[in-house]
Every structure is written in structure tokens, then in C-alpha cells.
Amino acid sequence: MAARVSHWRNIAKRIVTLSESFANYSDAELLASANDVRWRAKSGTSLRALMPEAYALVRESARRVIGQQHYLAQIIGGIGLFEGGLAEMQTGEGKTLTATLPSFLRALPGRGCHVVTVNDYLANRDCEMMEPVYAALGLSVGCVVSASEPDERRRSYWKDITYATSREIGFDFLRDRLKVGSKLDETHRSFVFHHDDMSSEGPVQRGHYFALVDEADSVLIDDAVTPLIIGLARESTPAIEALLNWSRDLVPQLVIEVDFLFDPAKRTVELTNAGTRKVVLADKPPLLSSFDTEKLYTHVEQAIRARLAYEKGRDYVITKKQEIAIVDESTGRTLDGRKWQMGLHQAIESKETVPITEETGEAARITVQTFFRRYENIAGMTGTGIQAAREFQHTYGLVVTIIPTHRPCIRQGLPPRIFATQEAKRSALVPEIERLHNSGRAILIGTPSVEASEVLGKALNAVGVDCQILNAHFHEVEAQIVAQAGQPQRVTIATNMAGRGTDIHLHDDVRANGGLHVIATEMHTNRRIDRQLVGRAARQGDPGSFQFWLSLEDELFRYLSQDRIEKIRGRTNPDRNGELSLSWLQTFRRTQRTIESRERKYRKQLLKQEKSREKMCRAMGLDVYLELAE
To answer: Which has the closest alpha carbon to 8: 399, 398, 397, 403?
Structure first.
């Protein structure tokens, strides 16, 4: 890795020198140079040969148009992204500006470039911010968000560079697939240069040549097995609602380990023989007479899952419209428009006694990891990629490279504090936050769920500490809240990585008092998420610190069996304040590694199954994305 970075550094220095030679060019001359490079790319000159000149043009364009100039570290990152890699760049290192380098270069042949962000806000923001840089070099830019109409989407995809979320790009692919079928692959191959005839009946996309994925660990790893599904609504009948409500009311009568088996780690439920007998013999309303026993078993198992495996405030929230909105575990954001499948969503609606929506079947589906493997070229940026380096290599062929920071990182890590119970942890944590608040520090607190953030917020308010709570209930203002988290005496509570992609700029007084202090109130199931939270402190050479506050009642342990949890807690010997020795940190790290390994194996297994299914469909002349949907 060091040799690779050293080689890229030498190239980057030549690019800096070349960009400085463009400083005397007029805007028209700069555009002419960009057009010349574009023509050579379309004429067959390799992009690698054009890279130094192309990157130098982008650097000069950014300097004169938006007043930002790529640092050496950003150019090194841009080279790594072109080389088909994943650049690990720390928070605040300017990934948005870095992305302009490979995006411009890959857009030159005229086959389209997709810049993928984690939400609509960032897609819009990055598009608006960087469009002038591209426009000065003769490239067009489009943006696709959830509110975009089909014709708007088509026009945006025909631009040289398109900003969008993975969700929007993936669903547009499936919609195109439903329109054109497997012939879409052949249709896309002819969409190289811009055509004036863009029929409203045809596909909106023109192929999958290059994708640059921001927050790549979130999109390509955490969401890898998330299915993108075009649904077919199934009418919700009185009989279905009666079945859902009957199943919900039956659950309290069933005994765990006797009538059903429940695996909290996998969130799976299986009725035993005793349980199936209870289901069959239970009193049923007349409306249920039309359902066979298998249907009854399935709905009862889903009702048990809804009751035991999914919690309000952690896995979902109830919106003002009385709808169930799924909460993304890794970001704390609500997943608008997304539903659990196989009747689980309706089971949770019944559990919470909100209006029951229509269940959806599947007209077309594809997982995130399978979709991005379709691209001819792919690159990614993230602040935390090295832990998943082998998986990135195996699944996407991406080599992870740690890009050196522009300025030395002076982040200070304080020893973790570990407690036997949540209550003991909270009792010690609130006075510590109060102390830091009074010292003039800015504090960012990471919590694992909506409920946890609100409980801590109430505890702080009770002692006179005002705080901003950022969770799934405040999705629309998360960027503004995070941007202000560096102000004096500002306390911000965020669920995991809500607000990801937004810089926290420190007030001078906060910088003088030690910078932003990050408190992680629990360990996440994945080390990368912990690193993302910690990485919010001490960006771009600023001062900052972090500390973990843990307890044996944290959500990390809900993935273990009850017997294992009881054995762990049985070995505790807390002091009078409920605090444990630092040696307990190994227990947390072991548990975290176990969960990471389990999830990694699941993703690997699913990818293997998808490859096998795709091979079988090709042999049978079927479209894997359509024919095998429900």
C-alpha cells in the first residue's frame, strides 16, 4: 500500500505543476483544452494516458469557479479512485471535491458517470455545488431524486454526470427492465453518445459504465443484501386484517422454547409441533375459514417476530400519518417508502394498531451488491474501508487504499468506561456531559436508537443541559443540526451516523477549549460504524477527543443467546457506582467480531446463491431479475 501511495504521490505532484500552468489560460482556452481532451477520449486514447491533463483541468476549474483547489491528498485519492479502488479518506478531507477528478475523467468517453450518495439531500447538494466546475469544462450534470418524474430522470441520465442515490438508480434499472426485459442489456450497449430522440416509452437509463460510490461502506457493505423490489400491491381484505389481528392476539398465549423457537441474532421464529397444535386448535373468527393451515402458521410466526424481534424506536417509528417507517440501523434515518416483506410489515402495523396497508408481491428485484456488480467500472470513497478490505476485493474487485490526511490527525482517545447496567452508565454519563458542557466544549453523542437518544435527552434536560436530538424523527433537518454541532456548549445527540456526509466546522472558542468531544454511548455491531462516529472529532488537524461509554445491557448483546448473556452478567463485580474494570472491554470486542463475522458470512453466502441463480436463469433463457420475482 505504501508503494502504491508513493507512486500516486509522484503523479499528483506532476498534476499540481500542470494545473498551475493552466492558471494563465482564459476561460475560453480552458474550455477548449477540456474539449480537446474529451475528443481524444472519444477517439480511443486511453483514459489513463489522459488522466494527468484531465485532473489538472479540473483542479484549475475548481480554483477559479468555486474557490477550492484540490490538495495533494485529494489528488492522490482521485488517482486511487480512477485505478478502480476504494479510497479511505478521513472525515473532513473533502471527498466531495475529490470525486470531481475521476467523475470528469470517466465521463469523457460519453457513456455516463453515476455519482452515488446515501440520500437525496447529499445528491442535490453535491450536484449544485460541483456543477459549475464541470460546466466550465463543457460537461453537463444531472440529479435524480425520489421526486423526479420519468422524463426528468431520462434527461438527467443522459447528462455526462448524474448524481443520485443507490436506491433511485437501482429502481430505475428495475423499471427499465420491466419495460424492455432482458433486451435492455443490448439496448444499453448502443447508448454511447447523446441522442436527441429520447422516447418516453424507452428506458430512462443508458447503461452502467461507471459508478463512484460515496460512503461506500454503507452502500456496498451495510446495504449489500438489501433487496430493491418493484412491488405489486395485493388488496388488503377484511379476511387478511382479521388474520393479522387474530395472530397478534394469539402470540401472548404461546410460550417460547415450548410453542416456538426464537433466534434473536437472526430474528427467526419457528413453531414447534406443540405450537402448531395450539394454532390449529385455537378459536378462530369465521373470516379465517378460507385460509389453509400453512397460511395460519406463517402469519403467527410473523406476529411473533413483530412482537419479539422488532422494537419501536429502534427498528421503526410511527409517523405523524400513523404509518410504520423503517429505521436504517446504520444511519438512524427512516427508509421512506420501504416495507418489510412476507407480511412482516403488516404484522407490525397490527401490533401497533395503525392502519394496515396493502402487502406487496414482487414484479422485479435485485440486491444492492448484485446491482453494483453490473457496472463495468466502479470506485468508492469512505472514511472506514480497511476493516472490510477483503470483502470489497472479493465482491467488487475494489482494492482499499488509506489516503494520507492533508494535516496530521491529533485526535485524543480517552479510556472507555464500562458499567454493569444502563442505569449506572447514565447516572455517570450525565454529570460528565454537564462538566464538558460547562467547560465550553462542543459535544456529539452517538446513540444506537431513537428511543435511547430521547431518554438521554430527557435526562440532560432535567439537569439544565439543552441538547439537539438528531434521529429518525428529524430526518429533514439533520444536515443543519450536524453542521451546527461545533458551536460552543452545543450538545448534539445523534442516532449512529445520522447526518453522515455533513462537515462539522468548529467555532474558534471550541477549538481553543479542546475541540469537539465525541461520546459513543454504545458499541455498534460493526467497528466501521464506531470509527465513523469517532472520526467526527479532530477533522483536518483540528483538536478533538472521543470516549466510549458501555454497559452489559447495551444492544450489542441482544444478538447473543439468553444463556450466554446470563453467563456474562453472572461474572460481574462492579464497584459501588456500578462500574466495571477495563478488562471487560475484551468481551465487547469479541462480541462485535462475532457479529461482524456472522454478517459477513451471510453476505458471502447470498452472493454465491445469486451467482448460481443467475447462471441457471441464463441457461434457461430467463431474466433473473423478473422471472424469479414473486
So the answer is: 403
Whole-angstrom distance, CA of residue 299 vs CA of residue 342: 9
Say what the pLDDT of residue 195 is.
46
pLDDT at 192: 45
Is the CB of residue 230 less than 8 Å from the CB of residue 281?
A: no
Q: How confident is the model at residue 473 (pLDDT cuts 50, 70, 90)?
A: low
pLDDT band at 391 (very low <50, low <70, confident <90, very high): very high
Q: Which amino acid type is present at position 271?
A: L
Q: What is the pTM of this model?
A: 0.84
Mean pLDDT of 112-117: 96
Task: Give the separation between CA 369 and CA 25, rounded to whole angstroms.
Answer: 44
Gap between the Cα atoms of 260 and 256, Å rounded? 5
Query: What crossing angle do the helices spanning 293-308 and 273-281 adopt, rounded to 10°?
Result: 110
What is the rounded distance in angstroms from the CA atom of residue 83 to the CA atom of residue 91? 22
> What percent of the chain has a predicted confidence (pLDDT) above 90?
60
DSSP characters over 462-524: HTT---EEESGGGGGGHHHHHHTTTSTT-EEEEETTTTTT---PPPHHHHHTT-EEEEESS--
Provide the CB-side half-sphere exposure for 336 (13 A, CA): 13
Q: What is the pLDDT of residue 199?
A: 63
Nearest to 102 by CA among 118, 123, 116, 84: 84
Mean pLDDT of 223-237: 78
Rounded CA separation 262/275 (Å)? 12
- Could you give the angle at the alpha carbon of 16 between the alpha carbons of 10 and 17, nearest 5°? 95
Joined together, the cell numbers standing for residue 211 give: 459508478
Strand 210-213 and strand 113-117: the pairing is: parallel
Whether the predicted pLDDT of 72 surpasses 80: yes
The two beta strands, 141-144 and 161-165, are parallel
- Are 98 and 81 a contacting pair, CB within 8 Å? yes
Note every long-range contact of 583-587, with CB atoms under 8 Å and residues 24 or more positions apart, other chains counting.
584/418, 584/550, 584/552, 585/416, 585/418, 585/550
- What the block records as the C-alpha cell of 239 is 379476511
CA 182, CA 154: separation in Å to the nearest integer? 19
Closest C-alpha to 599, from 334, 316, 332, 223: 223
CB atoms near residue 207 (< 10 Å) = 21
Is the sign of the CA dihedral 41, 46, 48, 49 positive or negative?
A: negative
- Polymer length in residues for the chain: 630
Q: Is 62 exposed, middle or buried (0-12, 13-18, 19+ CB in 10 A)?
A: buried
Supply 616's cell numbers: 441457471
What own/partner pairs with CB < 8 Å and gap ≥ 24 does 139-147 have?
Answer: 139/34, 139/104, 139/107, 144/168, 144/169, 144/172, 145/120, 146/120, 146/336, 146/337, 147/120
Nearest to 57 by CA among 112, 127, 133: 133
Find cell 414473486 and name the residue.
630
Closest CA to 220 of 80, 329, 116, 125: 116
The CA distance from 538 to 534, in Å, is: 9
Q: pLDDT confidence of 181, banded at 50, 70, 90? A: confident
C-alpha grid cell for residue 129? 455545488
Say if residues 309 and 267 touch (Cβ distance below 8 Å): yes
- Average pLDDT value over all residues in the chain: 89
